[in-house]
Structure formats: C-alpha cells, structure tokens
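Deliverable D4.2, example record:
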Amino acid sequence: MSSLIPSSQDLWFLPLGGTGEIGMNMNLYGHDGQWLMVDCGVSFNEPLKPDDLLTSEIVCADPTFISEQKERLAGIVITHAHEDHVGALPFLWRRFKCPVYTTAFTAEVLRRKLVQVGLTDQVPIIVVEENETKKIGVFNVKWLALTHSVPEPFAMIIDTSAGRIFHTGDWKIDKAPITGEGFSPQRFKALAKENILAMVCDSTNALKEGYSASESDCYQGLLSTIAVEKNRVVVGCFSSNVARLIALGRVAKESGRYLALIGRSLINMVSAARATGHWPDDLPLIDAAHLGYLPREEVLAVVTGSQGEPRATLNRLAADNCFDLSLEADDLVIFSAMRIPGNELAIDRLVTQFRGRKIRTLQSHESDVSIHVSGHPCRGELGDLYQWTQPEIAVPVHGEPKHLDGNANVAEQNHVPCQLVGRNGDLYQFSPQIRILRQQVKAGRIALLR
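Output generated by the structure prediction step:
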C-alpha cells in the first residue's frame, strides 16, 4: 500500500478522511517523493463501518498509509481549530513525529490538547501568519486569511514545481464577522493571475442556493430572541464557535443577564481566545457554580451537546442531573447549531425529554430569525470563488457524495474546465496528467475512544 511514491513530475491529492463524509478531515498532497498532510480531525459517535450499529465516541480516518512511510511526511498543516480538522492530531502525532504548522489561535488550542495526552512541549509547532510562506520539504505553503466561525481560519496556496494548488479549508463570505476582519475578495481575485491548477474546496452547503448569512445576523437574531425572555435561557452550541460565544457575551450584557459556560471544551476555547487576544476584555463570564443563586431572568448559560451527544451538558440538563444548573418548566433551551446529518434522532430524543418536563426548546429551523448561521459557503459563494480564482480543476471535498456533486455542478456552471469528484482512498492526479485512480489506498476509520 505504501509503495505509492510520487515522482518530481507528479502532483497528487489523496484524501483519507472527509471526502464523501462530513468530519474527520485528513488530506495528503504528494510530490517528488514527499507528502504533506493538511488537517487531522475527528468525528463523534460514529460507526467504524457503514453498516455497524455500534458507534465509537471519537473516530478518525485510518492513518496507516502515511504512518507506514512517515519518513516521507514533510509536515502537517492545520487550517483552523475545529475538531474535525485538528482533533485527531494529539492522538496520532506519535505515529507521524513531524512538525506541525498553523496559526497562533489554533496552536494555542492544540497545545492544550497535547497537554491532556502527555505530549507537553514534545510536538514542534511552527506558528505562521497571514500571507507568510513556509518551505515544508518540497512544498511551499502560503497562508491566506478567510472568514469562518472560529478565529484565524486559513486557506493555503501549496506551490510545487509540478503545479500550484489552492486548498480552501472551511470558509464562507462574511463581510461582518463577529471576530476577525471581513472577507476580502481582492486577495482571491489576485489568484486568477497565479495559474491555479486545482482548487480543493469545502462542499458542506453546496446544495443551498444563495449566500450564507453573517455571524452579525445571528447575533441580532439571538439578541431579539433572548431579550424578551423572562426565564432561564440555555444555548447549546459548538465549543469551537468562538464568534457565537462572543455574540452571546454581548447578548448577556445587553439583556441584563450573566453569562456562564458549562463544559470543559467551552471553557478551554474561551481561555485560548483570551490568550491570543480574540476575547473582548469587556465581556465578563461568571462561574457556572453561581448560576443557581441568580434570579431566573438573569441566567444565560452556554453548554455543549447540541448534537445530542450522550455525555454532554445538554443531555445532563434534560435528565436533570447537571451539577451547576437545574431547569424548570417554561425555561428556554436554544439550539444554536446545525443538525449534523446522522444526529437527528439523538437531537429529537433530547427535545422530547425537555418538552416532557415542559421546558421549551427552539431550533434554528423553527425560528423566524437567525439563531444559527452556517460557517460554510452556499452556491453563490462557491460560484464567486471559482470565478475569482479560475482554477483548471475543481476538487470538491468536505461533504457527503451529494454535496460533492453539488459543488462540481457549481464549478461547471462557472466555467472550471475539469471537475474531479472522488472519495476517501482515491488518488487524484493533477500532473503530469489529470485523472482519478479509484481506491488506490484502503481508506477506513479507527476508534480513538470507544
């Protein structure tokens, strides 16, 4: 399996995870005898095989192909701090033992994870900045800032003697993000002059028309929803959505409530945001242990578990065995997150449990205003980026098969000459000829925590 070795004329792309599924992203680029890994993520509560009824708590792509030839792995690049892009690295790094390149915020989040697995100060993390270029083996990698739902999301240009690739990472066009600067079309329009051979692109919302709403719209929606409430409000969201946490901090301030976080991952993320200057100094947090002493109308708690995860805080609140907070009839639980495909049953079970105790719930599809916005591009945004960058080849990733097909369709409509749609384990050849060799590597999943 590890006999696949790219020559100096070859430029290859090999996804091991995240292509044909949402989550556990793990991508390899091959050129001149070396490989570059982009992202190393996890998924939660997933089966190891498609028909398995048993699920494992934390799952990642099987790294065997690259760990068996780790001397050829020049480095690992992490695009941003979401779990499906960085979460597996602390568990897998001992198999790779190579430098990790990422930006300051993601590095801060990663270091905290490494401490938890006994790798304190053992992993060489090279911190990069916007527009900086690093030589990683035979690859020259340049970082380009984007907008997404986490601080410091980056795309990259991967430059080789056999061609130039634009890897988008996760992105959207947000002109008014809550954290960081607004999306700048200029830097991407400039790529049209740089002969981009292949654009490897996020497909999550490729079936949705138009443009994704701004995080600022979500802030306004949450404010108008929470400001009229007279009882406790709990918001379930992803811990890594720092923009949403900042928005809720502002909502608390403007609606006369105290904000508390329940869940270690939330507290860690805000701590990392503070350490890297992304958390506003004027947004205080109270200790969750103090929530029980507050009048109902002054409580705003942000918790983990918006996907119905069995051990997360929302599940404990539904069962009324959360140490820091008890909910009563007519309190409100807001789900400020998308329903990730496959989690619908778990979420519905949670909602039924709350409603059985007469606790109200509100999901984004039930609300007239934005209480959640996606961090991913819809078809309008995809079309814009294809037109600006004008790649020769479109490579949809980060999505289920229907999303990949939708992305390829947008690329075709926007005059990208070639679309390559594949799956994990397929070998995409960009140079010297353009083609996909199907299932060249055995792609699978491994459990990091059962």
